[in-house]
Structures are given as structure tokens and as C-alpha cells.
Automatic annotation (TrEMBL):
Keywords: Coiled coil. This is TEX9 protein. It comes from Tachuris rubrigastra. Residues 85-147 form a coiled coil. The lineage of its organism: Eukaryota, Metazoa, Chordata, Craniata, Vertebrata. The keyword Coiled coil applies.
Length: 149
């Protein structure tokens, strides 16, 4: 439980966090249950399926050992889920960074495309003007050749 208490609780956007569990002390809860068991006050949970039907034939100490084992397994499962959550969070951060880089690259490329398109238009206009001038000069050459003949 100390390992779990020392873990940071992160709540990325879009992820549900059980706020009831924040500040929850597992050791306090276990000690409360143990005190109740020592006093002989058992909780009224007839429909509780934490302990299998064979548990009715177990003694109190066996039930406690069983519940402690189940608690350890649950804690391990929780630690694994927290680890996986952190791993996924790291992956999300990496993907967000890559997305940001891609968006910046896309913006840069769009600007480059825009500049190149305007240059292309400029050169098309210059080409058309040069073609018109060339046609005019060719006709002038033809007219001068006729004059020379």
C-alpha cells in the first residue's frame, strides 16, 4: 500500500478518476476490518461474493488470510493498471508532440506552397508577355523580310 500511496495521481483530460479513492488509506481500512473481526462484529453482507461458498466452512483466520491474499492481488492489479495508464499517458504525450511537430511542418509547407504558387503565376505572366513580344518581333521580322525582297 505504501507503493500505491507514493504513486502520483494524474488525471489527463477525458479520463475518469475515482475521486473517492483520493486520500483513501488502505491500511486504515484493513485495520478497521480487523478490529471488527476481533470484536466479533462481522459486516452484514449475505450477498457478498468476495469469499466463495466454501468460505462459510473456513475459520475466521483463514478468511482473513484469504481476504489479505485477495487484497494483495487487487493491489497488484491496481499497480499494473496505474503502470499501464502512465505508459499510455507517455505514449499520448509523445503522439501529441509528434502531432504538434507535424502541424508546424504542415504550416511551414503551406507557406512554401503559397510562395511557390505566387512565383509560378508571376513566371506564367512573364512567359505570356515574352511570347506576345516574340510573336510581335517575328511578325516584324516577316514584314522586314518582305520589304527587303
Amino acid at each position: 500500500s505504501s507503493k500505491i500511496r507514493n504513486m502520483e495521481v494524474q488525471s489527463p483530460d477525458g479520463v475518469a478518476v475515482l475521486e473517492d479513492c483520493i486520500g483513501f488509506s488502505l491500511t486504515k481500512t484493513i485495520s478497521k476490518v480487523e478490529e471488527k473481526l476481533k470484536k466479533g462484529v462481522l459486516p452484514d453482507c449475505p450477498d457478498d461474493d468476495i469469499i466463495p461458498s466454501v468460505g462459510n466452512e473456513m475459520g475466521a483466520e483463514a478468511q482473513i488470510r484469504f481476504l489479505k491474499a485477495k487484497l494483495r492481488v487487487t493491489q497488484e492489479d491496481l499497480a499494473n493498471v496505474v503502470f499501464e495508464c502512465r505508459k499510455k499517458d507517455d505514449q499520448n504525450q509523445n503522439l501529441e508532440a509528434r502531432l504538434k511537430d507535424s502541424e508546424e511542418e504542415n504550416t511551414r509547407l503551406q507557406r512554401t506552397i503559397s510562395v511557390q504558387q505566387s512565383q509560378t503565376e508571376k513566371y506564367k505572366m512573364l512567359s505570356q508577355e515574352a511570347n506576345k513580344k516574340s510573336e510581335g518581333l517575328q511578325q516584324e521580322v516577316i514584314a522586314l523580310e518582305k520589304v527587303l525582297k
